[in-house]
Amino acid sequence: MNLKTDEFYSKADELIAAGRFIDSKGWVPATSGNFSARLSDGNIAITVSGRHKGQLQCDDIMLIDADGLSLDGKKPSAETLLHTALYRRYPDVQSILHPHSLNATLASRLFKTEVVLENYELLKALSGIDTHECRIVIPIFANDQNIPRLATAVDDYLDNYGAIHAYIIAGHGLYTWGNSVTDTLRHLEALDFLFDCEIRLYGVKQP
Length: 207
Ligand SMILES: CSC[C@@H](O)[C@@H](O)C(=O)COP(=O)(O)O
Ligand SMILES: [Zn+2]
Known about the structure:
- The protein has 207 residues and is α+β, with helices and mostly antiparallel strands.
- Helices cover 38% and strands 19% of the residues.
- It is built from five helices and eight strands; from the N terminus they run αβββαβαββαββα.
- The longest helix has 25 residues, at 181-205.
C-alpha cells in the first residue's frame, strides 16, 4: 500500500522550499540540519539522513510513523527522536526545523545554559506573544551523540519548566517548532535575529 498521500507531497514541497530559504541564510552548512512536518494521519514527513538541506528533492523527504519508524525503507534523520518527542508532547505542533546556524552555535558557547530574550519587539513573531514586555528563556542542552538520551534530557526539562519556543544544543544548533512550516520558519528567522542581538551586546559589554 502506498502511504504517501497528496498531503505528504504537499508537506514535502514545503520542507524543500524551507530548506532552500534556510540554506540561503547559511544556516545548514554541509549536510547539517533536519526538518519535518506532521500529517493529519499522525505520520510524519521528515528529511532523509545525510542529504544537503538546501538541495532537497522530493526523494529526500520520507515517511515515518509517530515513533520514528521508517514507513518507506529510507533512513530517517539521525535526530528523528528529537522530532517525535516534540510531536508527542505538543498535539498542536505541525512542523519542526533544526538548523545548525552560526548564531545558535555561538550563543551556546557564550551563554552556556540558556539564552534570555527580553523586551524585544520581534518577540511578537513567536506564537502566543503579543507584547515586547515579556521574557523568554531558550535552554541550552549539552550535545550528545546518544539521541535517545538527549531526547530524555529535553523531555525532563519540559516536564519541569513547561512550554518553550525552542532549544539550543550546545556547539550544535537550534530546534524550533510551530503550527505550520511557515510559522516555524518565522520563529527561526526571529530567533536568529534575537540571538544576533544578544551576541553583539555581549561583545559590547566585555571590558
Ligand atoms: C553534518 S553533521 C550534522 C549531523 O550530525 C546532525 O547533527 C544533523 O543535523 C543532520 O543529520 P541528519 O541525519 O542528516 O538529519
Ligand atoms: Zn544537527
